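User: Here's a chain of 398 residues. Predict its fold as tokens.
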Amino acid sequence: MNILFLTMNPFTVVDMHNIYSDLMLEFIRHGHRPYIVTPREKKLGEKTELVEYEDYGILKVQVGNTFGVGLIEKGVSLVMLSGQYYRAVKKYLGKMEFGLMLYSTPPITLAGPVKKLKKLFGCPTYLMLKDIFPQNAVDLGMFSRKNPIYAYFTAKERMLYQQSDRIGCMSQANVEFLKKNHLQIPTEKIQICPNGILPSPVTSREAEKQALREKYAIPPEATVYLFGGNLGKPQAIDHLVECLKQNQNRNDRYFIICGSGSEFCLLERFFAEHRPVNMQLISFLPKAEYDVLVRGCDVGLLFLDKRFTIPNYPSRILTYMEYGIPVIACTDRNTDVGTDAYENGYGLWCESTDPAEFTACVEKMNHADQVAMGAAARTYLEQNFTAAHCYQIMMENK
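Assistant: Prediction complete.
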């Protein structure tokens, strides 16, 4: 059957190896044909078009600019996206039949086209809840509940939940949060549908580890810690900086921070002022290069802002687990990403309040059996966080 997938993630081809592209590949593997609706920013100067491939199609919709722009321009673009997506799908795909419509948050503004397209196609709808907005923005102090913006987005949120036949949450904590804070949602709608990927084969990482140590002159006795991905306010970069200050210039640990985002400047300032000899700051890398970097490290790091009341579950942990790397999760109390890692033997957890607690986790990890913990991470990934698991859950409950 045909699958309609609405996403804000840029798609050029389907084999991009992330949680969304891998899910589309899983649908293709089972004989379905996905049609992926993806944004094409206006600044690129390219019009809306449907590109057909052998096993799938990509509808590239010209929308406003949302990346690398100010909050006002981004906000206007996300609001306008609703109509742009609906008109594009109706024009290019409106005469087709779809057996399932998938979409994810962010953004919550997909509520508009979901409602109209559900009526147009008459197919089941499935929300992959990756972000609970606007509460996450309230948690970070971006605006208050008294702000009219909050009322507007809350209305969109309720509409999206209402139009969704099933709501797939990333973890049990997400399920409980939704049940507690959104009593209007029938409980039978809500289920766990975690982040999932198509894991690459297990291979030795020794060559990458050796090359990384030679490139940065890392002492052989040092455990190499990596924090990679988005470097924004949700990732508590200010707290990360304080943790780095406590661990600088130590021969038994080496920290690599790789990524981009609104808070990158805080890290640049720290590195310029302190010039730590056991740390490296790297700007954004292409996916293939980033994966080589991950394979060369010993431990993956997760950071989340202590103010969060919503249970985030960062997908970046999957890359660590895919390559058999244990994790240290420094997060708020409401997410279960850290407790999952600790209880299942592939990581340690501390609250993102006191840098000393993070340093204690580093000390413990330095003396832990990292190989065994990494193997546990890979096993847990294969048993719980694969695209095959996500596909099965969606098809059983559509």
